[in-house]
């Protein structure tokens, strides 16, 4: 399966277990691997035969910058659902949601979750 990669997309959201996270918010980054068939787009050079990266960014942004969630696991799952609903050509997706500088004891650059989903997971 072919892939479209979107790396280090940055958003500001209010996700987390602690009240200060929901009030102050923080930066999140998202990496995507969109699994689709790019053969036709490669031959036709027509955007209608692919998945528009700008539209993907908007969909992800609506989730990350939208309603606050306790868990980044839920953010990742919501991104997957929205992508499959929005993009018919999407066969599978790998989503990594990264939370830099989490407010937990210790020294962390970030914490992240990564999920893999296929269209059949939502049918």
UniProtKB/TrEMBL annotation:
InterPro entries: Dihydroneopterin_aldolase, FolB_dom, GTP-CH-I_C/QueF
Gene Ontology biological process terms from the UniProt entry: folic acid biosynthetic process; tetrahydrofolate biosynthetic process
Residues covered by the Dihydroneopterin aldolase/epimerase domain: 4-117
CC terms in the record's Gene Ontology section: cytoplasm
Keyword Lyase annotated: yes
Organism domain of life: Bacteria
Alphabetized UniProt keyword annotations: Folate biosynthesis, Lyase
Short name of one Pfam family: FolB
SMART domains: FolB (SM00905)
EC numbers: 4.1.2.25
Main enzyme class: lyase
Keyword hit for Lyase: yes
Pathway field: Cofactor biosynthesis; tetrahydrofolate biosynthesis; 2-amino-4-hydroxy-6-hydroxymethyl-7,8-dihydropteridine diphosphate from 7,8-dihydroneopterin triphosphate: step 3/4
Any GO MF annotation of the entry: dihydroneopterin aldolase activity
Catalytic activity: 7,8-dihydroneopterin = 6-hydroxymethyl-7,8-dihydropterin + glycolaldehyde
Function of the molecule: Catalyzes the conversion of 7,8-dihydroneopterin to 6-hydroxymethyl-7,8-dihydropterin.
Family recorded in the similarity comment: Belongs to the DHNA family.
UniProt protein name: 7,8-dihydroneopterin aldolase
Source organism per UniProt: Tenuibacillus multivorans
């Amino acid at each position: 399966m072919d892939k479209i990669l979107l790396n280090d997309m940055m958003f500001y959201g209010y996700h987390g277990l602690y009240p200060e996270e929901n009030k102050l918010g923080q930066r999140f980054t998202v990496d995507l691997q969109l699994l689709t068939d790019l053969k036709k787009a490669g031959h036709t050079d027509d955007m209608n035969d692919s998945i528009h990266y700008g539209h993907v960014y908007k969909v992800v942004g609506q989730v990350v910058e939208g309603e606050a969630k306790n868990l980044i696991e839920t953010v990742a799952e919501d991104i997957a659902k929205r992508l499959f609903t929005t993009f018919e050509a999407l066969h599978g997706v790998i989503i990594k949601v990264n939370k830099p500088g989490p407010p937990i004891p210790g020294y962390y650059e970030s914490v992240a979750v990564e999920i893999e989903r296929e269209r059949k997971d939502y049918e």
